[in-house]
Amino acid sequence: MSESNETEGGVGNPQNVLVDTDPRSESVPVGHDDALSLPYTTLPDFNAVVGDLPKMDLATSEATKEWLIAISEATQCLIRGNVYTEAARREDSKWSQFIMDEAGKISAGKPKISPSQPGGSITGESALFKLSSILGTGGIVQVPLWHTGIWVSLKAPSESALLELDRRMAREKVDLGRDTYGMIFSNSSVYIKQFLINFVLGHVYNSTLKDFDTESLRTLISVNDYPTLLWGILCTIYPKGYPLAQPCIANIGTCNHVSKAHVSISKLLWTDASRISDTQSKHMFNRFRKVTVQDLEAYQASLKTTYVNIKITDELYLDIRVPTLDEYIKSGMQWVNDISNMIESSFKESLKGAERNTYMTNQGKVTALRQYAHWILRIKLGEDGGEGVIDDRGTIDNMCSQLSAVPEIMDAIIEQVGIAIENSALSIVAIPNYECPSCHGEQVTGEGDALHRRLIPLEVEQIFFALTKQRLIRTLQHAEL
Ligand SMILES: [Zn+2]
């Protein structure tokens, strides 16, 4: 990403954040001992102070141990590749938990499930949703997909569906990209993302898209809405929030406080009001009106999320677009298949186990640009494509493999895709920074005003895994057969 606004500790433009409801609260009772560790600061700020860690007298007290565990878990939830840090401090941005239309507030919420008359009957799935929502064990949440232009109503997954997801992911884990640690939309863990996308889409109960099915959602939903979808599923599972543990890193060496609170997951989605036009908010305001594919095309065109004629060198230009979930998954699967096929054709005896994994990882590295191929709409040779325009997927993929061998070009393309990711982000999942209650240290010196706080973008996938794991362990311990 661009480093232009970096100063010491990664503090850049002050952010314009309106915290309507603080997701953190000290006073809500919770029913169990598990906690979600979330970061106290952003990745650049964390990296700036992590060098101070040796100053600590490690592994001495229980408090230090607890702090170290919280640090390690919280660091996992820092967003990889520092994605959205630039978006969060975009000039003139206005991040808030809702969008204000002249007709009222727009934000995620529970769709109404009620009998047609008071005391009337509700049956079938509606009755089950109502029950789980009363018990607080989950329910339905209607989520705005701002990058796509639709609402989806997600229903809470059952314990057995979560168990099944866990089992499938453990079995099919293809760890191509664990150490490349690419940005959020890189293809490095395409299998995992494919499972999660199918899982979430399988829990869409309703949508404002006319005549929708899983397939049409996959081909229409913007990849930028993937974090929102996963966050939406978490909102259905934890309608009352979750215990929170945040380790202080404001004064490493003197403070090892772990702040215990409660986090309302439903308050962690932020939308940039400065990027939502009146026409776009009108399109989204009515959350029950059915929209057609044509309506969506018009809405998405108004977001201006194609970046044309991006110069990489004098002879190489790109048109960059925001891909859909389907384009993203196909591109990633194609990459993994291509590597796999190459192994089959280059070795008489097929490689197995660890040897195969190492070879795949290495092949992944030498074709690393393929991770971003789905963001490239066209490759143009010569100024304005005068020497040829490539818009065939297979050829774009092959060219990305070839260009991976030229580090300057690969870096320049990745940088431009990164800029497109930051630029096209309209909503992000993040937690505001806060002051440590023990040392009163704040990692960044913001405006000091409660209305002007800083957002720490979160890795929603990681939060999903952490919470699911704790939930499954708890459920299995509790169940006696
Ligand atoms: Zn502190």
Overview of this protein structure:
It contains 15 helices and 18 strands. It has helices at 43-50, 62-76, 85-88, 124-135, 159-171, 190-201, 214-220, 226-237, 278-285, 293-302, 325-346, 353-366, 393-403, 407-424, 460-478; strands at residues 17-18, 24-25, 36-37, 95-96, 99-101, 104-106, 140-145, 150-155, 204-207, 242-247, 258-263, 269-272, 306-313, 316-321, 376-381, 388-390, 427-432, 455-457. The termini are far apart. Zinc ion (ZN) binds at residues 248, 250-251, 255, 257, 436, 438-439, 441.
Tell me the layout of helices and strands.
Layout lengths: L16 E2 L5 E2 L10 E2 L5 H8 L11 H15 L8 H4 L6 E2 L2 E3 L2 E3 L17 H12 L4 E6 L4 E6 L3 H13 L18 H12 L2 E4 L6 H7 L5 H12 L4 E6 L10 E6 L5 E4 L5 H8 L7 H10 L3 E8 L2 E6 L3 H22 L6 H14 L9 E6 L6 E3 L2 H11 L3 H18 L2 E6 L22 E3 L2 H19 L3
The structure holds zinc ion.
- Please state the average pLDDT score: 83
Helical content stands at: 25-40%
For the CA atoms, what is the radius of gyration?
A: 23 Å
Strand adjacency order, main sheet: 1-4-12-17-18
- How many β-strand runs? 18
Proportion of beta-strand residues: 15-25%
Provide a count of the helices: 15
Distance between the termini: 53 Å
Task: Characterize the largest beta sheet: strand count, sense, and whether it forms a barrel.
Answer: 5 strands, mixed
Q: How many structural domains in the coordinates? A: 2
Bound molecules: zinc ion
Gross geometry: globular
Low-confidence stretches: 1-12, 174-188, 444-452
**How would you classify the helix and strand content by structural class?**
alpha+beta
